[in-house]
Structure formats: C-alpha cells, structure tokens
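Late entry, evening session. Most of the bench is empty. Finally got around to the prediction I had been postponing all week. Sequence below, unchanged from the version circulated by S.P.
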Amino acid sequence: MLISVIGGNRASREMLREAEELGRGLARRGLTVVCGGLGGVMEAVCRGAKTAGGCTVGILPGSRAEAANAHVDIPIPTGIGLARNAIVALAGEAVIAIDGSHGTLTEIAYALNFGKPVIGIQTWDIRGMRPASNAESALRILDELLSLPPRPII
C-alpha cells in the first residue's frame, strides 16, 4: 500500500527527525513511501524508510531520474514541475504532511479535494485534516484510518 508523505524542501532538524521516524514506522508496517523525491522532508522520510527495509517512490518535478535523493528506489520523472504535486497527493491511500510551505499546502488541498485522509504534523491548519503532534501520533492515526493493527515504534 502506498502512503504519500509531503513536506518542505527545507525543514528544521526537529521536523527532519520526525520525517525520518515516520519513514521507519511506515516501512515497518510494510507500507511504501511516495513523496516528491527531492530534499528536506522528502529525503528524510525516504532515509527512514530505507533504514527499516522499506520501499520509496519519488515523483519528480523534472525530467531527470538522477535528480532524486539517494534514498529513492523508484524515481518517476514527470517533467511537469509543480503540477506533479497532484500526482504525489493522489498516489497514496493516505497523505501525511510534515511542516512545509505553499507546495505542501497545494498537496494537502489536492488530497482533501479527492477524499484522501490527511494527517498533519506541525503544518497548515486546514479543515478536514487530522492533526498529529509527532510521527508516533501520526502513525497511530494512520493505523486507525487504514484499520491496520497497532505497532510500537522502536
């Protein structure tokens, strides 16, 4: 099952740690991370997923697969720039937003418009999104939303 993780190309150390922890938790659940494939939150969540043996997909804005961060298993170059945000948001069964700026806001809007469950960790305050205080609480909410058995974060 695919889970989209969205967030800024630049983020604080705290948010990058949360993204990495989130990636590990998703991989331990057997879930595949889908993201924008570049740096910041995207790279951190992929790094976390890879350290836990998970699979990662990067939906890239440009036309070169080589632009993906080193932790992306499956780079998908689109050549469509920021329009790729719609693909990132729609690819997952659910979307988890971490921090982020206007690009993250557009992905949240796409996901909500198409009825995807969205969980937010210290990101935009949008009606319809489930807030989480950290990666651990986001994973608990995701387990509930997807009816996955709860698992401890190690």
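Two things to note before I forget:
The chain has a mean pLDDT of 95.
The CA atoms of residues 19 and 45 lie 5 Å apart.
Will write this up properly tomorrow.
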